[in-house]
Design goal:
2 domains; mainly alpha; Farnesyl Diphosphate Synthase; two-stranded antiparallel ribbon; homodimer
Chain lengths: ~300, ~300
């Protein structure tokens, strides 16, 4: 199934235009559509039908894009996927209200799930939505704190990034008729590829190839963000370690010498292995193979 | 059933506090709890049980309060029910994110509806939520337009105010086992008391008793708002009529002389009659009587 074509079928030409145009604009920006693809793969991997999962798959993608829209307002981000963000192109009130409507549209799509599966799907979706908001709040809280631990950081990225991937897979598997064990195996796979993805993100920000990475190296360092790299450096070097008054090349050298780069690479490899182990609980087929490849791709990506 | 006691049972002491405290703060502000009461009355009026409707009734109240929270951000309102608004007491980002979570909490409460009734209730709820956002957008759009008609205004207040009251009643009646005809009669009742309520609001802003009204008379006039009063005056006096450069007493005199005050009172009476007619389609009982009284009370209120 071509998920992009399905997303394009959604109609945003309705009135009032001020409400719906920003939703169409946000969804037209593209992206990898990884969440709806995972929902479809979750169903296929357990022998279910893509078509049954489509409403939930679309709901997950619309919800994800809603979170980006409101996050951009809160972060005062100017650009998203190479285009002005909604609150820049329109205004902040439009971004708030169209974002609200976008969340409602996600629930409208979700209501298309077959009636006997709807109660559990709604519960899984609500739990995920809650955890994403909690993750976002922890992310905000951490900016004000100097005593964030690596464990707290891992929990934050689990909530903010991983649960959406994991829930997409679980909902797909549930609608596709998978067993509880299969659902949980796919959920766990999603959690671990999500964590690996985020740490890879933190690593690339430091040691990516500026040519392929697409943005300047060291952005997290300049912003003083408490990433996996920063928190691991402090764990190794002690509580007094800091990046204050250090330029990017100096910090990168310290990350190299302290073994932070190596620790990140090892963590990504370990999380990828955990994800692959979860897949072994399923009957192997072309779709579990696709999920295997995806785990490898994500951990080997350079942008 | 004591709906306030049920709302107080909801626990907002969870972590992260920055996400949940503003939700508890918003819900603790009180208000008339009219929407959950209407949901319960909708069920009782058709012979259903209050207890079955409770999850949906709470969802409606939480959703309503979510709309107030985000509306206050968009309107830059400083005070709500005598207390600082969330974006003043905390900050704007907190108001956005806690508001988002509040909408999710509404859907979590809704997922407590019995499974066989959930698909339709979710659809009714989603339709209502969409219409409220559309009404809010029209309200914003109308501020930039000089050619808004009375019919457009009535449609805007139907979306922004009435559908939530109407849907509360319909969901109550549906869960309570009412027929399609009963559900629609209660929905129509809700639409008409909502419209009457809003026009009464516009009227009181001009001709209320400053002692009982609780705020200064003529606020809408000073802000140049296109209310029922303003639009009716222009309908009677012609397109060149305006409130520009007129003080509040002058405009009030014009409203009186043009017959705008009388037109508003007649419209409120007519809408109240329509609401009462809808109730006649139901078997009379103590709960339909309560709804009758409510229609009379709302149209006779002085604050």
């Amino acid at each position: 199934m071509n998920i992009n074509a399905e997303i394009e079928k959604l109609d945003w030409t309705r009135e009032p235009k001020g409400l719906y145009e920003p939703i169409g604009y946000t969804l037209a920006a593209g992206g990898k559509r990884i969440r709806p693809r995972l929902a479809l793969l979750g169903a296929l991997a357990v022998g279910g039908k893509e078509q049954d999962v489509l409403p939930a798959a679309l709901a997950l993608e619309v919800f994800h894009n809603f979170t980006l829209l409101h996050d951009d307002v809160m972060d005062k981000a100017q650009v998203r996927r190479g285009r002005p963000t909604v609150h820049i192109k329109w205004n902040e009130n439009t971004a708030i209200l169209s974002g609200d409507q976008m969340m409602i549209e996600a629930y409208k799509l979700l209501s298309g799930v077959q009636a006997d599966k709807l109660p559990k799907v709604l519960c899984l979706f609500n739990k995920m939505a809650t955890e994403i908001c909690e993750g976002q709040q922890y992310d905000v809280d951490f900016e004000q704190r100097n005593d964030v631990t690596l464990a707290e950081y891992m929990e934050m990225i689990r909530l903010k990034t991983s649960v959406l991937l994991a829930t997409a897979l679980q909902i797909g598997a549930y609608i596709g008729g998978g067993s509880e064990q299969q659902q949980h195996a796919l959920y766990d796979y999603g959690i671990n590829i999500g964590l690996a993805f985020q740490i890879q993100d933190d690593l690339l920000d430091c040691f990516g190839d500026p040519q392929t990475f697409g943005k300047a190296i060291g952005g997290d360092i300049r912003e003083g963000k408490k990433t996996f790299m920063w928190l691991t450096a402090r764990n190794i070097a002690g509580d007094t370690w800091t990046t204050d008054n250090k330029d990017v090349p100096t910090v990168l050298q310290e990350y190299e010498h302290l073994g932070v780069r190596k620790a990140a690479e090892e963590q990504i490899a370990a999380l990828t292995q955990k994800a692959l182990h979860s897949l072994e609980l399923l009957h192997a087929n072309q779709y579990t193979q696709e999920l295997q490849s995806l785990a490898h791709q994500l951990s080997a990506r350079t942008k």
